[in-house]
Amino acid sequence: MRVASLLLPAVLIAPASGPLSAKPAMPNIPDYSQTPRTGIPTEFTWKVEDLFKDQAAWRIELNAVQQDVAKIPDLSKHWTDSAALMADLLDTVSVAQRRGELLYSYASRLSDTDMGNSEYQRMKGEIHALLVGFQASLSFMESDVLALGRDKIAAYVKAEPRLTSYRFPLDKILRQAGHVLPAGEQKIASLTGHFAGTPSQAAGLLNNVDLPRNDVKLSDGSTVSLNQASYQKYRASGVTADRRAVMEAFWTNQKRFGNTFAALQDGTVKAHLFDAEIRKYPDCLTAALEPNAIDPKVYTGLIDAVKANLSPMHRLLKLRQRLLGLPEFRYGDIYASAVASVDKTYTYDEAKRLVIDACAPLGSSYQDLLRKGFAERWVDVYPNQGKRSGAYSSGSYGTHPYVLMNYNGSYRDVSTLAHELGHSLHSHFSNATQPYPVADYPIFLAEIASTFNENLLMHKLLKSETDDRLKLYLLDTYLEGLRGTLYRQTLFADFELRMHRLVEQGQSLTPEWLDKTYLDLTRAYYGHDQNVVKVEDYIQSEWSGIPHFHYDFYVYQYATGVVASMALTDAVLNEGEPARARYLAFLSAGGSADPLDTLRKAGVDLTKPEALKGAFRVFDRYVDEMEKIANRLQAAK
Predict the structure, then answer these.
(1) Would you call 363 helix, strand, or coil by DSSP?
(2) What does the pLDDT look like over 586-628, one tens digit per residue?
(3) Same domain for 239 and 128?
(4) Which residues on neighbouring strands pair with residue 215, listed in sequence order?
(5) SS3 for 223?
(6) Which helix (H) or strand (E) holds 317?
(7) What tens digit of pLDDT does each residue of 110-140 get?
(8) Between the CA of residue 70 and those of 67, 78, 97, 134, 149, what are the distances in Å?
(9) Domain identity same for 90 and 235
(10) Number of structural domains, the chain?
(11) What stretch of H or E contains 403?
(12) Which structural domain, as residue segments, surrounds residue 226?
């Protein structure tokens, strides 16, 4: 129930093995990477004043919300005595949470674009502490709803129109009756929010800040210190010896801290087990999925289907080996572009036009919203000194979404812009259509609209581009993204499930077990024994650099999301208006129904194998197209 759980504004980020980093700016792309935030032209920054006029206004609102939250205990004393009193409390709590999200959004927007500003970090900490306390103050709600019972709730909803928008959240509580804690226990469980994320935070700080870095000598004689940014840059090097040396050196250094990473991962998984056990779930997977009515068979079925359909990815990897001219394809070659000679740069204005044009199948109203977003500064465009790396879409109810970019002009950046705006318009449609208590769509649905836009972008470019080499580059980049989302994220999901099952058996995660399990899985997925990709021993430590393993069965949703988006994209492109209407209805549904039901109405049933089979067919079809282009280019030599 949104009003009874701490739901900070969603930050939706494309999957990655670690934090994304800004590359040197390409020709014709402004380079503000060393420019202080105050020096960035206004038109390239997001409009935070749409949230609050200034920090003084933010602080006034913070104080007001603190006072409102302090009133909750008194309001809760007789809140289930009548339909009107129930509506009064739910509305009060809902408004307080909505205002808290606005406060959090403003502080986050400021701090993420100037991370060295201690005042912004302090503001973010203040609102986070308030929201955790707010969550704890609501510990009575679920147990009180259960005590009232289904029949009384139904009578209240029928009698009081204000309760209509709370019907689905209330039903979710009633459905989980066997897993709701008594009020006192719920309060204690809520207070664990102050420290439950510590292993994840510590692992992130170790990976990104504190880990001592080693140096690697490149083939040109230069020496590079392997931090996250340089690792991600040089692992994609066009020089085979360099990228392989960088990959091996980075993960060999990481292994030196395996005991610490293993202890942190063990702490995270045991925290998940604690939560599952106190709520009387049979296992961690069920505890993570059941609140959204997702059958664990969706998770295990994804893993089984991907492992049974590795051949499309293996075909792609063998083709990339051929294009790179390598006698042997190693894991250290995975991130190298197979069409490295293409150097295509898109200005930001060109990127905006491409994204708008690509979304034509969704209709002029959708395109007009994109234009509005660009014109009204929803996007923070370029990297600047102290700005958070990577990309995301975030926001809060009642305001427009915000997109963080670190735009540098590559096709990948154009695709990222399309991706994040897919998130943004999903939020826009949901917020515009649904009342606040059910506007927030679950994470299970979050990666659909984003990858849908990526699919449309690729479809447009393949139809409009005439240069075969550029088309080959675009396909290589797109399929590499699909590999990372469909296959790599499923590998992660497989590994995550094995970690939790081990801990559920009363054991601990040791570096030896984590290393061996991860290496064995990586070799199985990438065809090590079939001579598709040689996966060297050093990759055993890669698990320690994946932040998502601290997120409680999060990663599988990247894979299910792209499976659903591929099916929906095909439907819109082939069926036209009926499929488009279903898709826009999906974007507008928010969290008003269980996510699998919302998807079924859009035309995709993830409990059945056909959607997964369709994704593998599409992947294979694009590999076919890539092979045809490669053969044409080879014949033309």
Answers:
(1) coil
(2) 999 999 999 999 999 999 999 999 989 999 999 999 999 999 9
(3) no
(4) 225
(5) strand
(6) helix 311-324
(7) 999 998 899 999 999 999 999 988 988 888 8
(8) 5, 16, 13, 9, 28
(9) no
(10) 2
(11) strand 402-404
(12) 215-249
